[in-house]
Amino acid sequence: MYLEISNVATAINKNPYESRDKMLLCSWARHRPEEVYNYLIEEGCITKLKKDQESHSKLQEETYKAILPPLFDTKDFKIIEEEIVEDYKRKRNNEQDADEIKRLKELTRDQLKKDNGNLQEKVTIQKNNYKSGNTKMYYYDINSNCKIGGKFDALAEKQDLIIEIKTRTRLHNVRKNEYDLCQLICYMLATKKNQGKIVQVFNGVQYDSDTETEKEYGIVNLKEDKWKQFVEDIIFGLRKYFDDLEKIMLQNKMETLAMIIPNTIRPIAKLNERYQICDEKIEYKSILKFL
Questions:
Q1: Does residue 171 carry a pLDDT above 90?
Q2: Which fold has domain 131-235?
Q3: Nearest CA-CA partner of 197 in 137, 251, 168, 156
Q4: This prediction's pTM
Q5: Taking the domains of the chain in order of start, what are their residue ranges?
Q6: Which member of 7, 30, 126, 258 has the greatest number of CB atoms within 10 A?
Q7: What single string gives the DSSP state of each residue in 239-274?
């Protein structure tokens, strides 16, 4: 079994913004997509489009890609969103409904954060003369049947430091986060590097202190005793996570599905005439992408 390093914090309950149970459903979908596809249909989480319904999710995604400028930052988010909405209305001849615009805005905000993160990562790597790390997968075995893996952001070659770059959308988000620390340490374990650092970026300003401050961890050295318990907690949490995932796959169901996908918001996606998933709720795309 496998888990992306970027999801480790959620898997071990270190991410207050994402549910561990939702991550378990995501991992189940990764490993057994057909099972989860059928299960979610049976539970009413995915339904067919009605005969008089039409999906516009593909047009929304195309509109976003067409309007997105090559260079932008967090200060540009609002203007870009407004341009995307106006262009979409034009393409729909102003026949769109409120739900379409709501989904389009959610898609835009979600994707802008991701695309801006990727853009600022490249800028930060070039600015600091880091070596890009997104060229090779690295893995770390949790036990004989389970592993975590991923591609780290960059390497500061002179210091032999793993660099994890985090783009912040607000100044008050420049801070220490345990979920970022989990990700950095797991990349260090996978690459067998003892030192790493989180570099935060907001509106072109870089926060990259080598020493610990109120808002930064500084250089993390796994040879120091203060990190040993943190690493042990990660490994213990991951073993428990994979044990729970195995039980779910054996049972072919999730007892907590109603908490992950409440009945009041179902369905979270539709099926078109070709039985392809469309009109996904943005917050569940991480699960639906595997189906």
A1: yes
A2: Lambda Exonuclease; Chain A (3.90.320)
A3: 156
A4: 0.94
A5: 18-125+256-288, 131-235
A6: 7
A7: HHHHHHHHHHHHHTS-TTHHHHS-GGG--SEEE-TT
